[in-house]
Specification:
Structural class: alpha+beta
Number of helices: 2
Shape: elongated
Largest sheet: 5 strands, antiparallel
Strand content: 25-35%
Order of helices and strands: HEEEHEEEEE
Strand order of the largest sheet: 1-2-7-4-5
Length: 180
């Protein structure tokens, strides 16, 4: 009986060894390829229609828009066309920076319209206030898309504005595009 048991154990060990030896045989293959990564870019193009009339024109690198001879009650407008020339979608905002002549600016109210019509405004703002220092959202532009908007400036006609005669004011209007 012990002989038979030893024979059984030996047969089991040989079977286990044979199975283990067979399980370690395998085939393999692999492929490889080079990976090239190129980042996109953010690029906005801005064109202006002065007084919202005539064709949109490229204002150049440092555009100067002049709103001259304004007086209480006057509203003047400029229209902007913004195009995303980059490869990535951009959240576009309009903001003010570098304000000067705050007494005159405080008498002006600006209104933004999401298109170039004279329809209802999307909101009023003042350049020297905090309302627009962080930017007024214009919208998200996908690559190749354009949008137009109008900015109206109105000289407030409330009260006596004699102290604002022959004054100068200025600010920088900045159109930003940031990836969402």
């Amino acid at each position: 009986m012990i002989k038979r048991l030893s024979l059984s154990v030996m047969l089991l060990a040989m079977a286990a060894f044979a199975m283990t030896g067979a399980a370690t045989a395998f085939w393999t293959t692999s492929e490889s390829g080079a990976v090239s990564i190129t980042s996109g870019n953010a690029d906005l193009d801005v064109a202006v229609a002065v007084n919202c009339s005539g064709p949109y024109e490229d204002p150049g690198e440092n555009p100067q828009l002049a709103w001259n001879n304004i007086y209480p009650g006057l509203t003047t407008s400029d229209c902007f066309q913004v195009t995303n020339l980059g490869d990535a979608p951009l959240d576009v905002t309009l903001r003010f920076a570098n304000t000067s002549g705050n007494s005159l600016l405080s008498a002006l109210e600006f209104k933004y319209r999401s298109n170039t019509s004279n329809g209802s405004a999307d909101g009023g703002f003042r350049p020297n206030g905090n309302t627009w220092s962080n930017g007024k959202p214009v919208g998200t532009l996908q690559p190749g898309d354009s949008t137009t908007f109008r900015v109206n400036a109105q000289f407030n006609s409330d009260g006596n504005q004699n102290s604002l005669q022959n004054r100068n004011a200025g600010f920088t209007a900045v159109i930003d595009g940031v990836t969402p």
